[in-house]
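Weekend entry, working from home. Most of the wet-lab plans are on hold until the incubator is repaired, so I used the time to fold the two sequences that have been sitting in the queue since the last round of cloning. Logging both here for the record. First:
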Amino acid sequence: MSIIDCNYSVTGSGPAIFFTHGVGGAEDAWRFIVPKLKDKFTVVTYDLRGHGKSPVSNKDFNLDDLVLDLERVRERTGIEKAHFMGHSLGGMIAPAYARKFPDRVISVGLLSTVAGRSDEDKQKVWNVISDLKNKGVEQTLKNLTTRWFTDDFIEKNPDLVSRRLNQVIDTDKDVFINVFKIYAETEMISWLKEIKKPCLFMTGENDGGCTPSHNERMSNETEISKLVIIPKVKHSFLIEAPEQITKNLLEFIESFDWCYYACSLGGFIINKCKL
């Protein structure tokens, strides 16, 4: 599989953060986050292959291909080292990138993602893929909407919800199904311990697929981590709770230097930095 030159944007100045979106999304998934960070950070957002403005030559690709695409984006920006944050599938790409290119990584953010799924959990995801193939994307989205957003948000923000759904509909069906398969197949629990960089695990209290309990287990697999549960929200908390996401991102980035310093002096492991 050849590496794709993905569409990307660079905003702001300061230490760099790369943001990776999830299934059927685009770089604008971070549009409510970037303005709050650009005065302190160089923020890089990009479209996954086959999403947004990024091309795709072969619709049968895997997680390793997406990791190499991200490395290509980094190379093109000329940024040597950065924080790498991802949402949903992006939250699998970011740690996989850190595993393959550790010298390029300062810290990792795993937002609304999952590892350690039970057989029942896995089957639920494969059922969605089956529905996508058999019933079509638009029909399946009706069920996904209430998994992604709270009822209150759907009622009060129909334009934002419609924009997200239309983004999925506009994604090539085969690409969408393929990235959903990558999301279903990827199991990080066996290798998260290999990530030696500070990790932020953040999910919504009511995210039914990327649950707080999953994220607690993931947090316990890594040496230096912070676990944050955002109250009352579901999967699409980048849209529903951007202020809380940004606040916790900033607190994490500002705190992990202390974690490293403490570990180097005391020789102990910090599993949860509650700062």
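Second, folded right after the first finished:
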Amino acid sequence: MDFKESTGLYLIAGGVILFVLAQSIFFLVKALKQGKVLGLDKKRLTNAITSSALFTIPSALSILATVIALAPSLGLVIPWVRLSVIGNLMYETTAAENAMEGLGHTGGTAVEVTDPAVFAGIAWVMTIGICFSLVLLPFIAKPLHKKFMNAGKKEEKIETEDKKENTEKKSNGIAGFIDLLTPAVFIGLIGAFVARAIAGAGKPEIFGDGAGVLSIITLVVAVIVSLIFEVIAKKFKLTWLEPFVMPIGMIVAMVVAVVAFNVLPADIAILEWRG
């Protein structure tokens, strides 16, 4: 049996998943009890549970797509466990690829890992890398939160021309910076992946590792499909569709890439200008 999908790993993964499910059920029961204490009727509680469950579907689709992307190199168990606990699809993929590169594994996530030592190293990097946020969060987040809130509440006095009196105005300098920081970081990550699809250098001996026809097709299709569904959601006010936009774009792009590889002439399908 493949060491990446041994019985022991499946048992460990099953235990982790059961713990996550038990934790989810525990908090669901606690929330229902608290809702009754607050006087919420059964219909409102049911609607809240239903809407929450529906909004988890897009995230689940994104996670499933990432598991499928990592499975060829790492097997099913490790991606399944990592993305079922606190894993993030952007982090897990980036951590796995960086660990593979550092450990000398060529081909990235498209090539199977056959060395148990390399596999263990990748698993440790993916696990330990994200643990620091949990360890540091209680010690760093609260003091930083207080400083940011205090900075956001600082008031500056301005003198109006009509009334010769001082008024107080909330300064949103740092608060505005915080609001922009997260989207800016996310846009930077997206920009890095887009740049790799357009001009990313790959290893010549590994097909699909560099930018080429298939990477451009995948990128363009993902962007177009996402924009189409985003416009549809806004035009017809389909708020329930908005969380599905990114997963739909990813899945359609992957399907089109597979179809293009099998339909296009071989010389065009395998063309890579940076591979």
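Plan for Monday: verify the second prediction. The CA atoms of residues 50 and 63 lie 20 Å apart.
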